[in-house]
Design a protein that fits this description.
Elements: E1 14-18, H1 23-34, E2 38-43, H2 46-56, E3 60-64, H3 73-84, E4 89-92, H4 107-135, E5 138-143, H5 156-176, E6 181-188, H6 194-200, H7 204-212, H8 222-233, E7 244-247
Parallel strand pairs: 1-2, 1-4, 2-3, 4-5, 5-6, 6-7
């Protein structure tokens, strides 16, 4: 099927994107919308979500929802299905961060990150997967991190959560892929977002280290992650499942 014009099209797809009101999540929503998908932005901040959906225009909507309310995941998926159509693409992007020495990270803080990144994502995956498998069509994406590929100091809970996602992707892929549902992960490098600006501002030495080990010699943009997500959700990646794709300017192989 060389030259297939719809290889990168998401026309007819409905994408549910958590953390979709800003940053990488909103960039993914923009790119998927541009590729033809209906997009549903999910997050906790109603006003931010509404503004983001309006900026995208027709074919974009939003639902305020806290993914740590685990029992509400099926109701969220039912609402989205009713209003926008069956979910054919789930992007598990929502997350929180914690920068703290490992020995000062409390069990409660550790559990809070796992609840959002890991358990919340599983609850939504569990809610959408049966319908996808019944229709023999679907794509589930997780947004991982460089912290799942190599050691980064002061982010032990975040590292544990993002590392768990990589293993989950493999596990889901082995269960779902024979039923037409592909599961993949993107591991962003250092991306220019509000979160990264907070992490790097006032710390020029750390920023220099980041750029020094990134062969592309720059920070990435949210759009770099977004178009990778479009690829993985599209027919162009129809034989790609269980993979973790670094989008990092070479940071994971740089020195």
């Amino acid at each position: 099927m060389t030259g297939y014009p719809g290889a990168f099209s998401l026309r007819g797809e409905t994408a549910l994107i958590t953390g979709g009101g800003s940053g990488i999540g909103l960039a993914i929503a923009r790119a998927m919308h541009a590729a033809g998908a209906r997009v549903v932005l999910v997050g906790r901040r109603e006003a931010e979500l509404a503004s983001a959906a309006r900026s995208l225009g027709a074919g974009a909507s939003h639902v305020a929802h806290d993914i740590t309310r685990l029992d509400d995941a099926p109701a969220l998926v039912s609402r989205v299905t009713r209003d926008a159509g069956p979910v054919t693409c789930l992007v598990n992007n929502a997350g929180i961060h914690l920068k703290k020495p490992a020995v000062e990270t409390t069990p409660e803080e550790f559990e809070r990150l796992l609840a959002t990144h890991v358990v919340g994502a599983h609850a939504l995956t569990r809610a959408v997967a049966p319908g996808m498998m019944e229709r023999n069509h679907g794509s589930i994406l997780f947004i991982g991190s460089m912290a799942s590929l190599f050691g980064i100091p002061l982010v032990i809970a975040y590292t544990a959560a993002k590392s768990a996602l990589v293993g989950m992707v493999r596990g889901y892929a082995t269960e779902f892929s024979a039923h037409g549902v592909r599961v993949n992960c993107i591991a962003p490098g250092w991306i220019e977002t509000e979160m990264s600006r907070r992490a790097l501002e006032g710390d020029p030495a750390r920023k220099a280290r980041v750029l020094g080990r990134t062969p592309a010699a720059r920070l990435g943009s949210p759009e770099d992650i977004a178009w990778a997500a479009v690829y993985l959700a599209s027919p162009a990646a129809r034989f790609v499942t269980g993979a973790t794709l670094p989008v990092d300017g070479g940071a994971s192989i740089g020195f």
